[in-house]
Design a protein that fits this description.
mainly beta, 3-stranded antiparallel sheet, Beta-clip-like, 2 helices
């Protein structure tokens, strides 16, 4: 059953922080976040093509998360850009929002499954999340049928359509 935003969550947005450690950025929860909590919105420039820092939000629509929102050049305007991939994510992207898949503890890293948002990645990479065997992350299109089915509950409408389509 898909996890939808929790309308009873006391706060529609939760504080997050960005940590740079060993040359990598990480987005951390600044407070406990309940399952279904709306953490933040995806902001940025819309594009019809994927890029290294975009998140796919519709069939041919991507949000460039690296582009500062409203001229702001601080890290705060591009927080989603620093969210890392995980094969066992604690958030999902739904309707241009980051939603908690489960209760998240304060200072826990926020992650999402890039294969559950992107049809095809602009740049593929080898996963280092620690929950898999270092698989290549290439996008939903490149997953086998079992892997696609395993992500069914995470999928936004543009990928649910692809899962339902034969071939």
């Amino acid at each position: 059953m898909p996890i939808e935003p929790n309308p009873l969550a006391p706060n529609p947005h939760y504080p997050v922080g960005i940590l740079r450690q060993h040359g990598r950025f990480h987005v951390l929860a600044g407070a406990p976040i309940p399952k279904g909590g709306h953490i933040m919105d995806l902001g940025g420039k819309l594009s019809s093509r994927p890029s290294r820092y975009s998140v796919q939000v519709d069939v041919d629509l991507h949000v460039e998360t690296w582009v500062p929102v409203q001229g702001d050049t601080s890290l705060d305007s591009c927080q989603v850009r620093y969210m890392n991939h995980s094969c066992k994510p604690n958030t999902r992207i739904w309707n241009r929002q980051v939603i908690a898949l489960r209760d998240i503890e304060e200072r826990e890293e926020l992650t999402f499954d890039y294969n559950a948002t992107e049809w095809e990645m602009a740049e593929t990479f080898i996963c280092t999340c620690g929950h898999c065997d270092g698989r290549r992350i290439s996008g939903f299109k490149h997953l086998n049928p079992l892997e696609q089915e395993e992500r069914r509950d995470l999928l936004p409408p543009h990928l649910q359509t692809k899962l339902a389509s034969p071939g």
